[in-house]
Amino acid sequence: TLDTGALVATNGVLRMTDAVSKLISDGATRFRSVAYNGSRLVAGAAASNNVFNSADPLATAPTLTAAAQFQRPSGGTAAVATTTLVAWAGTAVVASTIGNESAFSSSSDNGATFNDISQINTAITNILDIAVTPDGSKWYMVSNSGATDTSVWSKTGTTWVRLMSFVGAASPYTIRIAPQ
Fold first, then answer.
1. I need a labelling partner for 151 at 20 to 30 A (CA). Which of 75, 77, 114, 134 fits?
2. Main-chain dihedrals φ then ψ at residue 137, nearest 5 degrees
């Protein structure tokens, strides 16, 4: 059952074997989407920007692990981004969300962490700080929307990705690179 609209005992990610269902999640989270690549399962939450993954979805007692708090697809912490859709794109997991600071995101570690590669409803009003590695191969930038949202970015070559965002926090963050 996916996102029945209310938190009830039947919500969650289920595996069907013949006519018998196997509950993979505890039913406390409504899911908007589920994707399975033949060995791993990922599920996108309906009411948040969280993604869950399972390395053992066919086990007797499967586990479901949430993406890292600051590395969820778009929105970071205090996210208002919702309706998380997930899919496998080769070996990568891709996700999209709806709402403030939402984005199209990609994960190279089976949905444990995400980088935003295409922003939706994101404003860069102020660039607060930029740091460059000594060899110039990587750049980091902190920006905010001028009012409520702050993002941390990384650039390698010609590609920028958002590493994380702080929704509701437009503080003047500073970024520094370790001396080594």
1. 134
2. -80, -20
